Amino acid sequence: MLKDSEPKQDRTDDSDISFVRLVGLLLDHKWFILIFTLLFAVGGVIYALLAKPVYRADSLIQVESKKGAANPLEDVRTMLGEEPKSDAELGILKSRMVLGQAVDQERLDIQIIPNYLPIIGEFLVRNGYERPAFLADADSDFLRQSMWANEQISIGTFQVSQELLGKPLTIEVLDNNNYRIAREDFFSETGKVGEDETFYDGRIKLRIIEIQAKPGVVFNLVKTSQLAAINNLRKRFSVSEQGKESGLLNLMLNDTDPQRAQRTLNAIDQIYLNQNIQRQAAEAEKSLEFLEEQQPVIREKLSRAENELNKYRTDRDSVDLSLETQAILERLVSLESQLNELEFSEAEISRKFTKTHPTYSALLDKKQQLMRERDILNNQVKNLPETQQQVLRLSRDVEVNQQVYTQLLNKIQEMSIARASTVGNVRILDEAVVQPNPIKPRKMLLVVLAIMLGGLLSVAIVVLRSFFNRGVESPEHIESIGLPVYATVPLSEEQNKLVRYIKYKNERKGTNVAFGVLAETTPADISIEALRSLRTSLHFAMLEATDNRLVITGPSPGIGKSFISVNLSAVCAQVDRKVLLIDADMRKGHVHHAFGDRSDGGLSDLLSGRNSLEEVIRETSIEGLSYISRGMAPPNPSELLMTEAFTNLLKRVSAMFDLVIIDTPPVLAVTDPAIVANQCGTTLLVARFQLNSSKELKIASRRLETSGVVVKGCILNAMERKAATDYGYGYYNYSYKPS
User: Fold this and answer.
1) DSSP per-residue letters across 645-659
2) C-alpha span between 226 and 96 (Å, rounded)
3) 24-62 pLDDT, tens per residue?
4) pTM over 0.70
5) Which of 79, 116, 200, 543 sees the fewest Cβ atoms within 10 Å?
6) CA atoms within 13 Å, Cβ hemisphere of 466
7) How remote is the C-alpha of 186 from its chain's centroid?
8) pLDDT band at 300, cuts 50/70/90?
9) Are 651 and 564 in contact (CB under 8 A)?
10) Strands (E), 418-537
């Protein structure tokens, strides 16, 4: 009787064993892993060849510091530590102002999408394969509409209404001078090459310059919005600085068309250069306007100061300054000149920054410092005689205004020259050039990644299948649930040669059926040797049984119960014993196939009274072995087995034969095995290697026990030699043949 005990723990089942088992599992499935990985490798190679390559164009721009004659007012910013920021230049390069002009200039908002052959069409065109001669006049629309190498159209004007932005239009070539334009089922009109055409009630304006394609070739024409084109360009465009604050900017643009990538990047470079020059010229223009506005004001102040000084000297009969007063005058004039320069700069900076800006704050601090020095000198002037003070003040006003006016005239002249010769602070060091090799796809890396992915995925599949496969793998597994193992039957390659696939009427799926008895055709097979060992074990096990009847059952279908029953019957008959094999699976029993016979005239016919016992017992080619087939499939097999006729049958055949072996259906599927086993002295379960779990065996045993049946033991069938199980459980079946 099955004991409800916990599985026995194997003390040697540690992490080392798990690792070795994993290695063995991979070795068992090495061909699956190899083929799966090879398929991924082939897929990677095909993708690498067919994928559209992406090329990269790059250029180099230098942004110099603003200095020199470009703008005299910039000297103050340089003095105060204000330098151009590279981040600002990076932002300008990626702005809609620059990229939008590039989109318009290169017409990136117009997409011409050819109609390629599926999968390989683009590869053929990319590698220059022209339309084959035998396809030149193909009748198939599929082949006629596909584009080949050296077939193209050139677009001049293309404008659409707002609702058609981003919507594909179909251009079908009629001949080199005519075409048809259509959009799904909305409209279909024709146009001429080289002429401005209007379609779809004025919503489309199109001018095709040239067509070089066979009649029937189809192109898809799409007009996107400028914003969408700018966003697409921005995704493919990148700018980075070489080093920190170096002023060297690397520009890169990715595109599937190398020529378009080069043209577009050159356009971006030139647009950025032009806007920089225009910005510098605009600054010079604004500065010149400011200086010209100040010129009449300063000239008026100078004239007024000169008149006041001359009048005072005339009134005082020409007063001269002492050396000390002269020195004070020179210092005051210098301070006033610097303050006036800061006034100009403040007027310029105030248009760009607030007073809290660091540049503005630094200018104000400088201005306060000069004003404090001026106040100190003014206090010294107060200690001079009244006449000296007045002459000094008037002379100071004259000299300061004269110096300021002279500086103003010089700056106006400088700004006029700067405006006429503005070159900006940006120069293109390297024009755009396309690298010869595409950046995508990286073929070798792609193939390597495909191989790695295929290997990892195949290993994961093997491991997951093993994880979810809870089938027993050794006798120890079965014995751990308290069920003795009477025999371990290896998987027979010779038996597989006898198996054929058949399908019964009204059944969706068929089953594998053995046509022949392995013990007769290949008596030296290793699995037959294992059944001979089982024969010996059963001889002693059945000594305590109440009768000579043996029931063979199992938890599920397809585990080899019939194989065990047929061949065990044969090896038992080979030792001069009279053996009867009964196929009690009246639903799908196929024991009769092993003997090359029919199913009708069997057990169901006997139990229903249509045939007698003598009529249903059939002899076989194996001496001492007889069998009863399942008979015609009845509607009520369980009820037939519960009749008195079945009980009488068992009593009669037990007296007629030395051993009666009964093959029954799966115990977890139907109740037939419990009914049969309840009238037999010995019952054995069959479990298939790596198919039936220990839990299934435990449930099957308990189901029989609830019917009063004691399960004697188990037979582990179809045992395979696998690397995954060799380490932990061993494999102890050997062939022993005469030399």
Assistant:
1) HHHHHHHHHHHH-SE
2) 10
3) 778 878 899 999 999 999 999 999 989 999 999 999 999
4) no
5) 543
6) 20
7) 38
8) confident
9) no
10) 426-434, 485-490, 499-502, 511-514
pLDDT in tens, 421-440: 556 678 899 999 999 999 98
pLDDT in tens, 74-126: 444 444 444 445 778 899 999 999 999 999 999 999 999 999 988 888 888 88
- Euclidean distance between CA atoms 583 and 600, whole angstroms: 12
- Those residues whose C-beta lies under 8 Å from the C-beta of residue 737, and which sit 6 or more positions away, are 524
Instruction: Give CA–CA dist 58/603, Å, rounded.
Output: 87
- 3: pLDDT strictly greater than 60: no
| pLDDT tens-digit map of 481-492 | 889 999 999 988
At 610-622, the pLDDT tens digits run 999 999 999 999 9
Farthest-apart Cα atoms in the chain, separation: 169
CA proximity to 69, closest of 338, 381, 386, 414: 414
Q: What is the pLDDT of residues 187-235, one digit of tens each?
A: 899 999 999 999 999 999 999 999 999 888 999 999 999 999 999 999 9
Strands (E), 341-445: 426-434
Q: Please give the full DSSP string across 100-118, using - where no structure is assigned.
A: HHHHHHHTTTEEEEE-PPT
- Tokens standing for 677? 């086993």
Amino acid found at 531: L
Supply the DSSP string of 458-503, one letter for each residue: HHHHHHHHHHH--B--SHHHHHTTT--EEEEEEP-HHHHHHEEEE-
Residue type, 74: E
Give the 3-state DSSP-derived string for 252-267, with helices as H, strands as E and coil as C.
Answer: EEEECCHHHHHHHHHH
CA angle 274, 278, 284 (to 5 degrees): 150
Taking CB atoms within 8 Å and a gap of at least 24, the contacts of 498-504 are 502/590, 502/593, 504/588
Angstrom CA distances, 491 to 140, 641, 716, stand at: 56, 32, 10
- Structural Rg of the chain based on CA atoms: 51
Amino acid at 635: P
For the chain, counts of helices (H) and of strands (E): 26, 22
CA angle 31, 33, 37 (to 5 degrees): 115
Could you please report the per-residue DSSP string of 135-171? Answer: GTT---HHHHT---TT-EEEEEEEEE-GGGTT--EEE
Distance CA 655, CA 280 (A): 120
Strands 625-628 and 579-583: parallel
Per-residue model confidence as pLDDT tens digits over 555-599: 998 899 999 999 999 999 999 899 999 999 998 898 999 999 998
Report pLDDT digits (tens) over 511-531. Answer: 778 888 999 999 989 999 999
Q: What does the block give as tokens for 539?
A: 């001889």
- Paired tokens of 218: 């189809």
Tally of CB atoms within 10 A around 251? 23
For residue 732, the model assigns a pLDDT of 46
Average pLDDT over residues 358-364: 81
User: In whole angstroms, what is the distance from residue 219 CA to residue 216 CA?
Assistant: 10
CA distance 90 to 94: 6
What gap in Å lies between CA 688 and CA 488, rounded to an integer? 10
Start-to-end CA span in the chain (Å): 44
C-alpha to C-alpha distances, 98 to 268, 430, 638, nearest whole angstrom: 7, 19, 87
Q: Which two tokens stand for residue 561?
A: 């119960």
Reported as a pLDDT band with limits 50, 70 and 90, residue 250 is: very high
Across the strands, what pairs with 124? none
